[in-house]
Amino acid sequence: MFDSLKHIAYAYRMRNKLLTNSSRIRLGSILTILTLIVASGADAPFVFATTYLSKSSVIFTNMNSGGPSSLIVEFTTSSSNTGTNGSLVFTGWTGSGGTGTVATSITPSQNYNGTSCTSITGATSYLPGSPTAAGTSGTGTITVTDATALTASHSYCYVLPSAITANPTSTGQGAVTLTAGSDAATSIEFDIISNDQVTVNASVPPSFTLALNNNSDNLGALSTGSVVGTTGVTATVNTNAKNGWYLWGSDANTGLTSASQSYTVSSTTPNTANSTLSNGTEGYLTGLPAAGITQGTGAGVTSAHGFFASSGAGNGSGLNTVPAELASSTGTANGAIVTVKEYAAISGNTPAATDYTDTITLVGAGSF
Asked: What's the pTM?
């Protein structure tokens, strides 16, 4: 039994010795490998991680095949970008044989058609300094130089006016490689299409409205001692007639008529001259006071016709059964107002009656 125990103990010691030697062999191999790596790289420089542009885009202002285009460029620098110059390189552009062509002389700008590239793209800033650019048509390369140092983690934009003299004549996707400062280049896809324009058609129907604020305008009791006038009726005109509009008036009786007396206080100088009524002298006319005429909004100027432009109470011209031009405008109007008044005077011989009446018709039209 004692011999059996010795054999077991010896076997256990040999196992541990083998495990220990094996571990030493592995550890020695690892140390040897590390020594070789350190020795071989002792003179090599320390390599930093590569940094990249982000949120990069190149906007073609014309994507039509064969068409010219300006370029609007946007990018955001990395946290370690301190470079200055940049470039755009179009893949496969040779400047001949129907492929794209870049301009050789380009002046960078911060605006496109008067609008800043920051407003168009949402970038924070335009390129710092006074950048310049030049294109190489044979290679499809545009180089941007003379900017000052870029700020890290900052978004920039710039415009290259008329940078593309001709897009590729064939449609389809293409690539442009963008560089800016010390960050690694980034590749951007674009598309050339047959037509990037949308035609929008519309029509504006002609419009004209005329509204009267009242359909009665009474003179009340007339006397030989004064000229009596009405409070007036306002005509409101709305129209999109570019050449203006007109207001006409006519008188069914050519005066104030009493059916019971078969008598008419006749219109004075109907549509022939401007007149002023006098106390005690029969007369009846229509006037448009200057204070009662307003244009509202629109492109026109509203005015009374010469005969009917009233300088005060009792001044104007008479109406008859033929429509007479009362007022007009030189253009469109929204809320143009014309106030139309009637004036009357009687003599001592004017027959008494309570049924003197007249009907005036006011009509208008636009000049489209």
From this structure: 0.66
Instruction: For residues 298 and 188, state if they share a domain.
Output: no
First to last CA, the chain: 131
- Which residues on adjacent β-strands are paired with residue 86? 144, 180
The answer to whether residues 166 and 258 belong to one domain is no
* Nearest-5° Cα angle at 97, 96 to 100: 55
Q: 86-90 and 101-102 as β-strands: parallel, antiparallel, unpaired?
A: unpaired
Tell which residue, 100, 368, 75, has the closest CA to residue 239: 368
DSSP string for residues in 180-208: ETTSBPEEEEEEEBS-------------E
Residue 317 forms part of a structural domain: yes
pLDDT tens-digit series, residues 133-189: 999 988 899 999 999 999 999 999 999 999 999 999 999 999 999 999 999 999 999
Token pair for 221: 């009791």
Q: Exposed e or buried b for every residue in 308-341, given b needs 16+ CB within 10 A?
A: bbbeebbbbbbbbeebbebbbbbbbbeebbbbbb
Q: How far is CA 346 from CA 68, 162, 310, in A?
A: 81, 81, 20
